[in-house]
Amino acid sequence: MNNAINHIKNSIASGQPILQIVSYEEKRVENYMAKIAEQVLKTDNLLFWDINNGITENNQTVNQTQDPVQAIDYFMNKNTVGIIIFRDLNPLIRQSPEIIRKLREAYKKLKNSKKLIILLSPDDYFPDSIKKEIDIIHFDLPDYDELKNLFFKFLDSIEKSGRRINLDEKQKKTFIIAAQGLTLDEAYRAFMKAFQGKNSISIDLVSKIHLEKKQLILKEGVLEYYPHKFTMDDMGGLDNLKDWLKKRERAFSKEAKQFGLERPRGMLTMGISGCGKSLSSKIIASLWDLPLFRLDMNLVYSGMGGSPELAFSRALKTMDSVAPAILWIDEIESGITDKHTDSESSRILGYFLTWMQEHTSEIFIAATANRIDMLPAEILRRGRFDQIFFIDLPTRKEREEIFTIHLKDKGNDVSLFNIPQLAQITKGWSGSEIEQVIISGMYEAFNQNRKLNEDDLFVIFGNSVPLSTTMEEQIKKIRSWAHKRAVNASKDKEY
């Protein structure tokens, strides 16, 4: 927030008479401008204009000022220092050379006069003929402290109403971080929806805040919101990857920033299909208490959201607006590659590389790849992703964990199964293949009105060929590439 406020103050100090402020938050911007008028211009003379009422001054409408040209004239001819805020004048400016001419006159007359015209609109488009005369300022979304003040006002009212607050300090911070990326009004509505009618306020309600961000994403046809369904306990093995994620659990906190840490930018998981790449992306969201959004590159290229370049750039801008969040790009090589010769793919690649390098929003990219060789070297170089993990076929110990997780998850008594033996005979099987064997065995047992047993699994093992056999050459190639280029996601080496 300080950047926008300082920019406005500096523009006023330099005698700039016309500012365009880009924001959806009229009330919030106007409150700040009232404070700036008092602090910088030493006045409380704040006027407002809109197409329906014309100028409002001291809560009274001024006759014959609905026409923007007349309204600008009225303000230009006032003898007092002050600020006038024009609400949503941009669409009219595009269609009216008279307004453009009058604004250019106002620029000349009001320069260094301590009289300021504010053009407030969520639209940042402006005719080239007047861009030289104005400063364009994008008003930042509420920062952590603003959202903290709003959140604690809610907590105060909840306490006064006699309801319980079951939140520790860390959980309170989680709520505030979850609201980042929303406007103040959106955050207010999100807190209201989360707490309305609740006798007890607990951390579970933070999902309601994430759902408010989902509403923003629904407007983008190429982005999809994923609710938190998976935790670390749902993923067997991959201890190196888990350890890396746990160490960054508080990476987007205020304390991390004060400590001097830079926010993590992203990770790329590559490896063999069905071994946990997508799952590892999903668990980040629950571990870090951040919303997860998936970017579907097939939809980007489908044309449903307009031209692929526009759909892609709009999606990334939308992600910037809902930060902090996790952006999951599954099978990234299918949409962001230098192997395609068409210009659309080249422009998308160029835009993505620039965004990865330059964006300042708290977006963590969780990308997965099956064909790492299809990715351009520019994406793989240091600085794009914080780490590249290779996920191989599960080790024996990891297969034991995978069997335990899936058998428990599907309501089976794990003590009735010889887990070490099952892990031993499934050498070369992926995690998803093991899960499908359990599901197939349960169908057999269900049709015979009994519980799943080991014999059901052995029968399916004997009639199945794992991916490691049918795609042996490709797996060798993947392992060879990853040997010196990526960190093994698993600590255990015994396959």
Can you walk me through this structure?
By secondary structure, this protein is of the alpha/beta class. The protein folds into 4 domains: 2-138, Rossmann fold; 144-210, Helicase, Ruva Protein, domain 3 (Orthogonal Bundle), CATH 1.10.8; 226-391, P-loop containing nucleotide triphosphate hydrolases (Rossmann fold), CATH 3.40.50; 396-427 and 431-465, Helicase, Ruva Protein, domain 3 (Orthogonal Bundle), CATH 1.10.8. The chain is 49% helix and 14% strand. Strands 4-3-2-5-6-1-7 form a 7-stranded mixed sheet, sandwiched between helices. The chain has a 7-stranded mixed sheet with strand order 10-12-13-14-11-15-16. A two-stranded parallel sheet has the order 8-9. A hairpin with a 3-residue loop joins strand 2 (46-50) and strand 3. Helix 20 packs across helix 21 (454-462). The mean pLDDT is 88.
